[in-house]
Amino acid sequence: MTDFNSEREKMVARQIAARGVKDPRVLQAMREVRREEFVDALRAHYAYDDGPLPIGKGQTISQPYIVAWMTELLQIGTDDIVLEIGTGCGYQTAVLARLAKHVYSMERIAELSQQAALNLARAGVTNVTLAVGDGYEGWPEHAPYPCIISAAAPTDVPEALTRQLAPGGRLVLPVGGRSFQEMVRVTKQPDDSLKREYLGNVAFVPLVHGIERR
Ligand code: SAH
To answer: Given this structure, which CATH class describes domain 4-202?
Structure first.
């Protein structure tokens, strides 16, 4: 039997804190969410590996360090609501939900959204609302958001997402083409202008236009 609790402690120490993530609330959330419950049973033994894992439909759950780093960049307050683009298996959603008041999460592939709903229910996460939709459009009903995160890379920052950002709000996402992407944090200033920070090269699946048609 793998001792997943000790694997998780090691993951936080060696992959996340060692690479510079410092926010104690983020480190605690990473200690608490059981990543093995978000991947299929056959891959549970790889749940704490230092890399992405396949979750079906050609998509991947992000590397634990990347999840922690992006979460730290969002600077989520306990009263903040978060918009997440790319629910995938729901792992990042669960981490965000431990820090935020509520998480609205969109996914373009219905099958993944349904699986994420099961994963999150099993993990006892209740402060999330999932929807099948196109993240390029954002989710206007609940805007403006103090925090927006995308786990898939558009070629340019989508205008709908900066529009739905609250004054002072943070949008964290990879931006770029198939072969080269960069982590970007966009902060909306009090006068509505946008400040962009470029934070280094990353590798993500692309943000694809439209919901999956079957
Ligand atoms: N955070 C996820 C990572 C999933 S990978 C996890 O922890 O599992 C990125 C996800 O973004 C994929 O599931 C992909 O289907 C989804 N995606 C891609 N383009 C999208 C779009 N336009 N709108 C919503 N989701 C999108």
So the answer is: alpha beta
